[in-house]
Amino acid sequence: MEADATTLTEKMRAALRISSTSAKITEEIEDCIGACKADLANDGVKVIDESDKLIIRAITLYCKAEFGYNDKGEMFRQSYDTLKMRLALSQEYNEEPAPPVSKTDTGTEGAESEA
């Protein structure tokens, strides 16, 4: 496996120290990722970008808790719940991004119309 895994599934496989690429294990990892994303969305996290470092960390903690990584599943669950709460409370993660504003500037910046 490459040192810099690119897909989220491969990142989780590396984080869990799983070298097997069996279809069943891959499916379980992908199910875990999907469950985490659903859990985040259920608790108010609306912006779930798989390239965002905090989202990746949340998914990693969730997967480690579910897989009972190093017999510290409860510790990872608590860490995940804390991060999930912070993400849900963060305006950056709990509001859909605003659509881009079209530029209609005609070069009359600062000019106000009189009524």
Topology:
Blueprint: H1 8-15, H2 23-42, H3 53-67, H4 73-89, H5 91-94
Report on the structure:
- The chain is mostly helical and 115 residues long.
- It has one domain.
- It has helices spanning 8-15, 23-42, 53-67, 73-89, 91-94.
- The protein is globular, with a radius of gyration of 20 Å.
- The chain starts with 7 loop residues before the first helix and ends in a 21-residue tail after the last helix.
- Mean pLDDT is 85; it is low at 1-5.
Roughly how much helix do the residues carry, as a percent range?
55-70%
Distance between the termini: 69 Å
Count helical runs.
5
- N-to-C series of helices and strands: HHHHH
Structural Rg? 20 Å
Report the mean per-residue pLDDT as an integer.
85
Number of domains: 1
Looking at the structure, what is the overall shape?
A: globular
Estimated structural class = mainly alpha
Give the beta-strand count: 0
The major pleated sheet works out as: none
Portion of residues in beta strands equals under 5%
Question: Which spans have pLDDT < 50 for at least 5 consecutive residues?
Answer: 1-5
Please describe the structure with a list of short key phrases separated by commas or semicolons.
single chain; mainly alpha; about 55% helix
